[in-house]
Amino acid sequence: MKKSLLITFIVLTYLIVGCTQEETMKESSEQNGKTEKVYAKEENTKGKKINEFTLTAQEKEWKLSPDKTIQALTYNGTVPGEEIRVKEGEVVKVHLKNTIKEPVTIHWHGVPLSNKQDGIPGVTQDAVPQGETYTYEFVANHPGTYWYHTHQNGVEQMDKGLYGTLIVEPKEGTNVDRDYTLVVDEWESGEKEEESNDGHMGDTHGSMMEHDMSSYDIYTINGKTYDNSKPLVVRKGDRVKLRFINAGYMVHKLHIPVDYRVTHVDGQKVNEPRKNEGTLLEIAPGERYDIEFKADGEGNFTIDRHGESEANHKMRVDVVYEEESITNQLNHTNSLETVDITKLGEGATAPFSLDDEFDIEYEMDLNATMDMSEGDMGMAWTINGETFPEVPPFKVNKNDKVKVTMKNDSRDNSTHPMHLHGHFFQVLSKNGEPLKGAPIIKDTLNVKPGETYEIAFLADNPGDWLFHCHDLHHASNGMVTMVKYTNFQPFYEDNGKVDNQPE
Description:
mainly beta, Immunoglobulin-like, 3 domains, seven-stranded mixed sheet, 32 strands, disordered N terminus
């Protein structure tokens, strides 16, 4: 009997101690692990050079071409808006002053800043009403080519010109002689709509399951057509950098008829970039590509857009030499090969690989459907069969390694340039084939019909972040989701005072 009692006592003691240890370990895990409260990072500006700007959102007449002037929405009166150019590690402090009737914001596209500075109405701030001022402040820790634009009803406000460029130069300098930024975009003249109303064109929006952009019939570089712009000037021997940014909603293919190298994608370096010989550079909405070439003095040349539209010959720019002796014009080659982002440079150590163990994996089925919610039949673009805000968010823990598979099944045959806020991601594979060349780090990736990409990112920037298609026609009609951090402590609450429209 005594022996039995002793055994029972030992067993009970073991169970109690074991349970206590388990609870202690659980509490410790909760305190130190993935259930602890997380906060938006603070921008540490102490002791750093502060570059201060004022960007005024204003309506202004803007001359796209000699025969077409529009009422544009601008930052500081120009399209694109004033260029912000700073050095790596410096502070960007911008006072946004709004003088137009609609509320506006500024989103710093591609910059992995604090969630507090992301400029998303209804998510990180109220949009700024007419007559009011709002200040953004962040440290430009990541050199590269970026841009800024409104995120309030962006499908309309950006379409009217409310965007600008942000260049963060590396501390060691760019090591180039000429540095030009070229923003491509497309505009509606209104003539297609007038023809349609007169019965001459029929339905300019195409068939029921077709995404049609034919009403965009003016193509520009830096807000101007070819016959309303100036050439890029170089000298023989110059090392020339061209920074291309797509601020529109269409994919543009630019033919560059000289040997060049793609040195950066979305601002991030390409390892040992390979030479491209007179190829087409394809730039999707939201993407940026930096190229470099040597001005060898063999002749002036033109960079132009390829495609079937009549507007193509307006999207071009001349590169001319200062030397009067160089007057010959280089002819375009017949090559129509498009630059392949999977073959931009040589292989190197990368943050992720397909062999990694990921904490979280998500799949995004990108598709289209007919929307009857408003009583009128129209297009809706979906993620996993849902439209925003009904799309379930990605839920991540701080420091999770996240893999996302994006597949474009859109029945309207449209492309989807998917943009992730607040993070860079690595492209792991395309259509099931692992990338073998230079690691490709981006924040915007164009997924064409039938294509599948695997990407990965580190969840190291707590907040509520948008992940959406940067053809804002698609975003404003559903193709938006969010990345939400577990136990994130909100700093903003939408109190309903402003009509916030995040897309």
